[in-house]
Amino acid sequence: MKIYNKIIFSFVIALSIFACNPEKPVENPPLINEIKIDQTNFMSLADTIITDVVIKNPDNDEWTGYCLRNLKRETLVNNLFDLVYSEKLIPYDFFTDSVMTIKEIKRIERNPEYARENTAKVQFEESWSFDTKNQKMIKKVHSIMIAYELYSQEGNVKGYKPIFKVYLNQ
Predict the structure, then answer these.
(1) Domain range spanning residue 138?
(2) How many domains does the chain have?
(3) Per the domain annotation, does 83 fall within a domain?
(4) pTM of this prediction?
(5) What is the 3-state secondary structure (H, E, C) of the chain?
(6) What pLDDT is recorded for position 87?
């Protein structure tokens, strides 16, 4: 009976010790606006660089699907249109860099060739900086162009047509 009491007593002590020291929760990385950056350590890698990103999987390709798995494409496209319609962002013609009117944007949206769900490419104009001391990189986006798919007679994607370009506030 004494051995049984000792085992129970030891179990209760061990349980109370582990209960008082719960596992530390996994810490999430800080939000981008919470990161403190010392600009003095950064060197410019690209004053201006243009990057194209396909944001819709045209051929149901497995690798493209994997790359886009966390993208909220519809949210991105809708937000850009909402910001243009609310006049918080000014749309520009991609080729002429002239300001587009809201009427022109609405005309594009009424065009049977276009549908928001066919917005399939973005082009970023950005600058890149790298901090070799702390191994951090900053990509600062200056403008975003969105484009939709154009199809061949066979139904294959043959290219992309720009909808508009917006410059972001710096």
Answers:
(1) 28-167
(2) 1
(3) yes
(4) 0.72
(5) CHHHHHHHHHHHHHHHHHHHCCCCCCCCCCCHHHCCCCHHHEEEEEEEEEEEEECCCCCCCHHHHHHCCCCCHHHHHHHHHHHHHCCCCCEECCCCCCECCHHHHHHHHHCCCCCHHHEEEEEEEEEEEEECCCCEEEEEEEEEEEEEEEECCCCCEEEEEEEEEEECCC
(6) 95
